[in-house]
Write a structure and sequence with these properties.
The structure is a single chain. The longest helix is centred in the middle third of the chain and has 18 residues. The two termini are about 20 Å apart. The protein is about 35% helix and about 20% strand. It has about 120 residues and is an alpha+beta fold.
Length: about 120
């Protein structure tokens, strides 16, 4: 059951760390969201979520972040280690269902070469 947890050590929260990933990492773009990816050194995968005010009011933005966190939590075991990711939501993602969030996440992870090889 531990593989489905989402401890604080997996979260990116500091503005400085967000800026570091934005500036030094590369982006993978989709119609519904964007991944910014930066390889790390000897650390577990870390992820931050960004949902701008254009997406909607606070209730909608929080809902989007909850959905994003849940998708990451469920698929964390499939991802490579030693990487930092910022997942940025676009406005159209707010109207999507959970399956769409999963599809978008896995598509971006595959294009960013974050998925482990079976």
């Amino acid at each position: 059951m531990k593989e489905f947890g989402f401890p604080k050590s997996n979260k990116i929260k500091a503005k400085k760390e967000f800026q570091n990933v934005y500036e030094k990492g590369h982006s993978v773009v989709d119609g519904l969201s964007v991944f910014y990816v930066l390889p790390g050194e000897n650390e577990m995968i870390r992820i931050g979520f960004a949902v701008g005010k254009k997406v909607g009011n606070a209730v909608i933005r929080n809902h989007v972040k909850r959905m994003m966190r849940e998708v990451f939590r469920l698929h964390k075991a499939e991802l490579k280690e030693n990487v930092r990711v910022i997942w940025v939501a676009r406005k159209r993602l707010a109207q999507a269902d959970f399956k769409t969030y999963e599809r978008v996440f896995l598509r971006l992870a595959k294009r960013a070469a974050l998925l482990r090889q079976p």
